[in-house]
Design brief:
elongated; mainly beta; Immunoglobulin-like
């Protein structure tokens, strides 16, 4: 068979009979001519030995097993190995790890695996040893526990490897051939230990105890649920109420579940009992109030959205403004307030601006007491009530006294309790006492035609009980129900 081979200018020499420098077109009947692919060869021949040492190969006869013909064939990384043939031994030419019996190709040469590299057989390892169970087999120096030295100072599955081959990924997770279950502490267990270990712990729970209300006190024994084995507990002050000095609360022993907490009177605290282990931490909160107003300095009336300043004063929590709840009714209205389920009020001088300025509404006694439907709460918000004469006396006995007599209509005092002199309304004489005195209904029982109120005089600083005709309209000052 004659074959025409078109070549570009090529000049090369080989040991078999190919002559000199060939240029242009040439008729070549020798089957052993130069080639680039099998397609350049005659039938029954393959293009072999490419790149050894030349770019071109030589057409040679086809044999039954191309991976055993002794020539570098197409698809092989080295003679009769790599690629589609069996893996090559160490020091053979390779293109990828799959070309090598060691599975490792570096700089186009098959090499042995370094210590701590995964292995399947000792022949893959530079050390000549492959140890460990199953998928955990590693190259290295064989060892028993504690028999390793630097730099491979850890015995893992019978092989010495470097402790640096274990990376802490946080949250009790370690990755690398040198990771051991020993990295989990005594309080946690190891979920797996091949090239990744996960430290797992028992669930963490925290119970700080019940909320505590001790108005006027300054210390309390806290009773949290004790921690479990391998767990740590710690008390913390999470927040302090308005009016308390920052950092005033402290624990006798912050790490003890049962410990004494000391704060300051008329302050409130949110305390946290934190329980933690190697894996997690949980905090439960408890509210501790030594404050008669439970740490609040503002009361919001959910019925109408109005807010009132409040203060802890002498065993009680008082509103420091008069109540202003209910619908306005002109004093000359023919439709007087009645037991109709609607709260109604008068405003000094029939001007609602006076009600809104802190003087509050003027209520008939029946309106102030909600016609007896809810006891001492009367017209006050939920959780609040009209003060009794005894509670007003406690306020006086504690030292309440007005300041700036003759100067400020609000009758402010040294404690911040503004008397707000709203006067009263008598049907017959009309509005009286505005900016001069104030009458506050109490929740004490009435007589036949009068009801007990508490009167504050602006001109002489006297505060005293006063029996007011029940058909009069006076102000209401609420205090927190105990």
């Amino acid at each position: 068979m004659t074959r025409v081979l078109i070549r570009t200018f090529v000049c090369w020499a080989v040991a078999f009979a190919l002559n000199g420098c060939v240029s242009g077109f040439e008729l070549d009947e020798d089957p052993l001519f130069a080639c680039l692919t099998d397609g350049d060869c005659l039938d029954g021949y393959r293009c072999l030995d490419k790149g050894q040492p030349y770019l071109y190969g030589v057409c040679r006869p086809v044999v039954a097993d191309p991976c055993a013909d002794g020539w570098l064939g197409e698809g092989e990384s080295d003679v009769d190995c790599g690629g589609t043939c069996t893996a090559c031994p160490v020091n053979s030419t390779c293109s990828a790890g799959g070309d090598c019996s060691t599975g490792t190709c570096e700089a186009s040469v098959c090499v042995l695996r370094a210590d701590a590299a995964p292995c399947e057989a000792a022949t893959q390892c530079d050390s000549g040893f492959c140890g460990g169970p199953g998928g955990g087999m590693l190259c290295g120096v064989p060892c028993d526990a504690g028999a390793c030295s630097e730099p491979n100072d850890v015995c893992v599955s019978g092989v010495c490897v470097s402790s640096a081959l274990c990376v802490d990924e946080g949250a009790g997770v370690f990755v690398g051939p040198a990771c051991l279950c020993a990295r989990c502490s005594a309080t946690s267990t190891c979920a797996s230990a091949v090239h990744r270990i996960e430290c797992v712990c028992d669930p963490v729970t925290a119970t700080a105890g019940d909320d505590v209300y001790l108005p006027g006190e300054s210390s309390v024994q806290q009773h949290a649920e004790p921690v479990g084995v391998g767990q740590l507990g710690m008390w913390k002050v999470l927040s302090e109420s308005p009016g308390s000095a920052v950092g005033t609360g402290e624990f006798a022993d912050p790490s003890a579940a049962d410990t004494l907490f000391t704060g300051t009177p008329d302050s409130a605290y949110v305390l946290g009992w934190e329980v933690s282990n190697d894996c997690d931490s949980v905090t439960d909160e408890v509210f501790v109030s030594f404050d008669r107003c439970d740490g609040h300095r503002t009361l919001r009336d959910d019925r109408d959205g109005l807010t009132y300043p409040v203060l802890p004063l002498f065993e009680n929590c008082w509103m420091t403004q008069n109540l202003n709840f209910g619908a306005f009714v002109p004093s000359d209205s023919l439709a007087m307030p009645g037991d109709d389920g609607l709260s109604q009020k008068f405003c000094q001088e029939d001007d609602t601006a006076n009600c809104d300025a802190g003087y509050g509404g003027l209520y008939l006694h029946d309106e102030a007491m909600a016609y007896g439907h809810n006891g001492p709460q009367g017209v006050c918000p939920e959780g609040w009530q009209l003060g009794t004469l005894d509670q007003w006396r406690t306020l006086l006995g504690g030292g309440w006294d007005m300041l700036a007599l003759g100067e400020v209509p609000e009758a402010l005092d040294s404690w911040g309790f503004a008397a707000m002199l709203g006067g009263k309304l008598d049907f017959g004489s009309g509005f009286t006492g505005f900016h001069a005195y104030n009458y506050n209904w109490t929740s004490d029982a009435c007589s036949a035609d009068t009801c007990p109120a508490h009167k504050v005089y602006y001109d002489n600083s006297i505060s005293s009980p006063y029996n007011l005709p029940f058909i009069s309209a006076a102000t209401v000052r609420c205090l927190k129900t105990r």
